[in-house]
Amino acid sequence: MKRIAAGTVWFFTIIVYYCTLAPSVGYIDSGELATVANTLGIAHPTGYPLYTLVARVISVIPISTEVIVRLNFLSALLTASAVLIFFFVVIELLEEEKKSTPGEIIISAAISSMILAFSKTFWQQGVSAEVYSLHLVLICLVLLFFIKAIKMQEHRWWLLFAFIVGLSFTNHMTTILLAPALLYWFFAEHGINKDALKKISLLSLPFFSGLSVYLFLPVRASQHPLLNWGNPQTVESFWWHVTGKQFRVWMFSSGDVAKKQLDYFFGNLPNEFHAVVLIVALVGAIALLFTDRRKFIVMVLLFVSCVAYSVNYDIHDIDSYFLLAFIVIGVFSAYGGALIMRRFEQRNVKITIGTFWAALVIIQANGNWDSADQSSNYMVEDYTKSILNNLPPNAIVISSQWDYFISAAYYYQHVNKIRTDVVILDKELFRRTWYFPQLEQLYPDVIQRSFSEISEFKKELFKFEHDLPYDYSVIEGRYAAFLKSIVEKNTSLPVYTTSEIESQYTAGFLRIPEGFVFRLTQDTIYQPMDQPRFIFRMYDGTDIYTKSLKSLMVRDLLYRASYESYYGKDTLSAFYSKKASEFATNSHSQVSKF
């Protein structure tokens, strides 16, 4: 019965994830991670070597013509597997309680697993290539093996637990958030004594065996892969990379940030879980407090450590950092559901409650479908290809649009081999010394022309990276001089920026809007533009990234409309204004072509 229920949960979850699977590159890191997997490169901090290796294996299996689709499906497979493992975590917890019948336990575990599977953020991990799908599998395995080790006190479970903990760190460093709860549980069971400390020390070997996957980073970096973020060959650069030094500026920055993110977390909970689910989870939490205070404290520690850490991270895509807290809510809902079911002895009442729970899963899935469904989202692909395919030969593009363009461009240029002649420079990554060797490998001629400016800038950048005293005006001046040299020393090539690049970095040049980029020129005469070739399969998502990208495209087209109007080209001005309006109003069922 248990295996049938588990198989049913997994089957329905993977079917729904498959139906909502992204057909292309998604926002943020999707394109970069796919490229890193395909080329065995080094991803952004903290490197994610385990995900890179797993994704590499999947990327070469011919289950689809597109590498990105294979990796999107990998996310579906991994996230559905995490749901399956969560099912067994709940089974272990409820069986130890010894209050519910086997049938009540299985129903509670199955329903709570599917409620978690179709919570918004959990579901989103299963439809697009990201590292969090593997992270979910690993942290659920850590919990399962720890519970089994505590319950059975068998050496094999402790070894498996320690190994998976080490392995989990090589995929995502937020595995550390499990430590307060599991250490409390361990010492509560064993006491703080020599035997307990000896047991922990014996677990160091399997732990470091799992952690050894991180050796992939310096070994592969020494081979100078196509993408070599952080170039972690030395002890210093390796430590900076795996500890996310580059991103620490956004962590624990202020109390205002923590308050903003905390308000977001609690305000967004009803969008993650149906209100009834949250009430049942609260009932389960209260019940656990009175029936098993130790497990209650464990769950609270998991929840608090996750939320307390995550709210201090000042980023937009914060939702995935709350996944551990959502897992705890899933556990509490299982306890609440089991409590409600055992309160009623009549069989028909139990059937009614079970039917209501099943209906609640459907209601939650329906409510979150639009937020999770990426099956018609080609926005990033169409935007990136629209830029690349409309550029003249050997163009240079300076941009900081990582979430919509740069990450995806890695994939289309280096995996699909589309417009490999185009030079794409990430303006923000210029603030890191490791980026220049990567550029020298990819675009040696362009970088060599600015060699002197780069050398002067890197002297100041070294001080910044090593926390040495530096003069902000000096480092900013050399940064601006270097960026300007890219334009001035490549006059034989067409140079472009995207709209967000600040004007001080292109001083002395006019910006001529051409599609979704701006050509830099010192020529003041009217610059006609060849009719752009755009095909957009519009997507009506309401997430911040879709709305921001649509707004960006509309704004860029209106810039061209204004440019045409300024030179008296009223027909062309009206054309681009009309297209901007179409982009602002089109739904996913429409295709915009011009």
List the uncertain runs. none
Biggest sheet statistics:
5 strands, mixed
Identify the strand order in the major beta sheet: 2-1-3-5-4
Taken together, the total number of domains comes to 2
Instruction: State the end-to-end distance.
Output: 57 Å
**By helix and strand content, what is the structural category?**
mainly alpha
Total number of helical segments?
Answer: 26
Task: Report the average pLDDT across residues.
Answer: 92
In percent terms, what proportion of residues is strand? under 5%
Helix content: 55-70%
Principal-axes shape call: globular
What Rg, in angstroms, do the CA atoms define?
26 Å
- The total of beta strands comes to 7
Write the layout of secondary structure elements.
Elements: H1 2-19, H2 30-39, H3 49-59, H4 67-97, H5 102-117, H6 120-124, H7 132-152, H8 155-169, H9 179-190, H10 194-202, H11 204-211, H12 216-221, H13 235-242, H14 255-272, H15 275-291, H16 293-310, H17 323-342, H18 347-372, H19 379-389, E1 396-399, H20 402-414, E2 423-426, H21 435-442, H22 444-449, H23 451-465, H24 472-488, E3 495-497, E4 510-514, E5 517-521, E6 535-537, H25 544-566, H26 570-585, E7 591-593
Parallel strand pairs: 1-2, 1-3
Antiparallel strand pairs: 3-5, 4-5, 6-7
